[in-house]
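As a warm-up, study this chain.
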Amino acid sequence: MTEARSETLGEKLDRLIAAVSRLAPPPPAAPDFDAADCFVWEAETGMLTPVERVNRVEIDLIKGVDRVRDILVDNTQRFADGYPANNVLLWGARGMGKSSLVKAAHAAVNASHAARLRLIEIHREDIDTLPALLALLKGVAHRFILFCDDLSFDHDDTSYKSLKAALEGGVEGRPDNVIFYATSNRRHLLPRDMIENERSTAINPSEAVEEKVSLSDRFGLWLGFHKCSQDDYLAMVDGYVSHYGLAIDAETLRAQALEWATTRGSRSGRVAWQFVQDLAGRLGRRLD
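Now compare it with the structure written out below.
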């Protein structure tokens, strides 16, 4: 009688385990890295979503940042070839092509390296899941650029510690087939008042500040982007107009481009592109 009750209880437990297993989500499928050369990391599902059409411009259209462009492309080429390369922080003025340059450099290097390099975008709010993404990429034959656009951290945000450990500080370290590129308006990724608050309230101010700013030290290359001159701005406009074959005389183009920048109160690659979009619309032309 005792044995029969024990078997019945075992059967009930088996059915309960089976039911719970059916409720659990299936494990994510292994990524197909040949499906695309760019992916987006979906932290909630632990999956990489391929991007069929990447929003990017050709690298020759990015003007006014020739020196940092060459440094980034060279670093990316060395990484694609399997040689040592650095994590890169692209920081500085808004609208000067930081994120555009990352995507353009990836495309340029892939064009000459048989598309062996994959670009994976990770959103700022998912930085604390970076270790899970690295575990997924470790040991894969492809090489990966992890890209985080507009990376910065605010008060009481401790996820920057996960990034520090993932980049250089963990026991295993960053996998050899992974490199990290980030853009930010802040060179140290943290707001100045946050750093100053640490200096004023900590028992040892210098140690507290060092702990905060050491995150940016994990990036071997700091590429600075600064506000462009009028000549650089006009060169950006001329580059777009020539590339898309927009018919307008030089003097009219110059006058309209400068007026556009004046009304915006700034000159940058983004302002130049917005002007060209407006110009193309007025001329009845598509930017394909």
